[in-house]
Amino acid sequence: MSYPSKITTPNHSSRRQFLKTSTATAAGVLVPYHLTTSPARAQSKASRLQFALIGVGGNGTRTAPVGKEFADLVALCDVDSQHLDAGNHLLCDGKADTYSDYREILARDDIDVVQISTPDHWHAKILIEAMLAGKDAYCEKPLTLTIDEGKLVRKIQKQTGRVVQVGTQQRSSFDKFNHALAIIAEGRIGKLKRLVVGIDGGGWSPEIPATEVPAELDWDRWLGPTPSIPYRYLVNPKRDPKNGFTNGHTQFRWWYEHSGGKLTDWGAHHFDIAMLGIAAAGQNNDPVSVGGTAKHAVEFKDGIPVQTDRYNTAQSFDLHVSFADSDIDMNIRNDVDNGILFEGDEGRIFVNRGKLVGKPVEDLTSNPLPDDAISKIYRGMPMKQNDRHAHWENLIYAIDNRVLPISDVHSHMKMLNVAHLAGICCRLGRTVNWDQKTETVIGDDLAASMMERPYRDGYQIEM
């Protein structure tokens, strides 16, 4: 997939951002990084961007403190009043403006960036409406719940020119992955033949009864675009009483209604690196098909779970992805080490967040990578630090220079489509074939129909 590296600032951007970007554009060159990003912003309060956090749960409270080093957090939104109050005191000493409806944040002219840390089924709707409202965004992965949502996200990004950083931090925050990609790009393992992607198994639950919705939670708004279903909760004796078996909050990812299970959870990280590795090797990473086997705790009919009272995403899987480069097989498994094995005709390496191993790695002692090898992987953009700050830092750089960030929506969706196709394969129990050129499932009308999901009345995307 090809896409421009520089993006256009739309007419409805804030005056402050427009003036800053126009100055850089008028000069005919990108403003040097050290003149535009966080150090300069820290010295001048007026130059710092204002951002809002939408979704004040686990990921929100983990990532927003990093964002605060680069921008001012001025507003919070959540449909759970306890989360909202606790997040306000934790992140902002109780001084932020708080909302239960994210649209009130999007209506504010003084907010430049939104961080979207809601459950997966809300990501695309909020992101699209944020871009249309003239906001740049940091959106947690997976970017969408369906393939067709991804098409719309990309269309609106191109239309508006907004900068969107997807929260696949492995592109920035863990140097082992960029080193692995550089090793592959330098030909140190030869031509890629096989990849094994380990992403762990899915969640398990007993029967979970429908119960009264907690007073602090607006369940209808939490469900949003997805079908109206009863709230379910059961205490898990092995965990904190507030973190039991449920179809809401932290356990939403085990329900196809709201997520794609491990395939779009860890898969959104590791498929990303795997497909970048194929591209780094100079080989074609256009997906062609996804097949294999999966096991669920419930039965399915035409891809829909028959039972509605327990976790329903795939608990185990052994899947194979084929690509336009027919020499490559990518095996997705839950019963191997979490991480990615790259196997070429001249060597192999394994990488995850804790290690990068293999003979080509050992050989770096006597034959190091070229000085610019990592820079090439990072598209020539500055990478000052190697932790979770790096991803937000890259977002600020992209906003300042109106360029695509390291984890842009276009390359993310090509990878995420593989995760969605894998989910369709698991739910139907058969191989799903894909045409990358038209971005369509081919030869299977039922599978093709699962590229989209209807939005509940009152929660359609506001265009």
From TrEMBL:
Organism, per UniProt?
A: Rubripirellula lacrimiformis
The protein in question is named Inositol 2-dehydrogenase
Task: Write down the EC number.
Answer: 1.1.1.18
Q: One Pfam family, short name please?
A: GFO_IDH_MocA_C2
Gfo/Idh/MocA-like oxidoreductase bacterial type C-terminal domain: residues covered:
207-460
- Coiled-coil stretches are none
Q: What are this entry's molecular-function GO terms?
A: inositol 2-dehydrogenase (NAD+) activity; nucleotide binding
| InterPro entries, alphabetized | Gfo/Idh/MocA-like_OxRdtase_N, Gfo/Idh/MocA_oxidrdct_glycsds, Gfo/Idh/MocA_OxRdtase_bact_C, NAD(P)-bd_dom_sf, TAT_signal, TAT_signal_bac_arc
Question: Keyword annotations for this protein?
Answer: Oxidoreductase
Q: Where is the Gfo/Idh/MocA-like oxidoreductase N-terminal domain?
A: 50-167
